[in-house]
Amino acid sequence: MTKLSIRHSTTYRYRYPIALGPHRLTLRPREGRELLLASHDVVSAPDAKISWATDVFGNAVATATFAEPTDCLKIDSKAVVDLTSAAWPVFDIAASAITYPFSYDGHEWKDLGGLREVQYLDPSNLFQQWVRAFVRSGSTDTLSLLKDLSGGVSNEIAYQSREAEGTQSPLETLAVRSGTCRDFAVLFAEAARLLGFGARIVSGYLFNPNQMLTGSRDSGSTHAWVDVFLPGAGWITFDPTNRSMGSANLIPVAVVRDIAQAVPISGGFIGAANAFVSMDVAVEVSEL
To answer: Which of 57, 144, 149, 242 makes a 20 to 30 Å CA pair with 137?
Structure first.
């Protein structure tokens, strides 16, 4: 078990005082079998009324409402978690799904719903051709196929940090051959769905104590990866940015169908369009 402290600070600055609209916060680490949440607190300046809800994916989402104008908004999330995931996990995949292709049973097929559906157009079939190249024969080992697909993303796409918001489509990432962890996750999830797997995109934090992992310049950062559903084993984590499998060093915050649903903080303000000056984000992940 590894006990970690996570601090995620976001600061918005404006040229003059503006009125803040409600802000949606997806910052609370997602508890599960491999992660125990010891504590979590969100504070803001100016003060906000914070109400909590659970979204359709089971993520904890807060809504912050503000009463007073301000020229600076700071939102500070602090959490302590116990991470229990194994470094080299073994997955008990059902016999029916060990070999690809396989079929989900009726309940799984229906319940996975939109997590099975491709999200992006591919009129040229270039993306489909790229994905199908990983299926080397009519039937193949399912886990090996997913490992090869994850490795193919990291082998063929160069990691490159990008400050600008937004995510590239799979075709854009294949065209430029570079991307962020968000782009890697979208590419892998879309490829898995094209092959018939149920896949969800995960946002959260990367713990990088030795600074050996891709996606963080220091001991921790925000990060994105993918879970794929396999009968028997359930949701299996793949981090194509680091060509890894399993949840070691990963602290999930939200699971979503579309990467746009995983924004940590979203909201608006009432004021002139030129009022916004900057947004600064600082993330610290350290072992206790």
So the answer is: 242
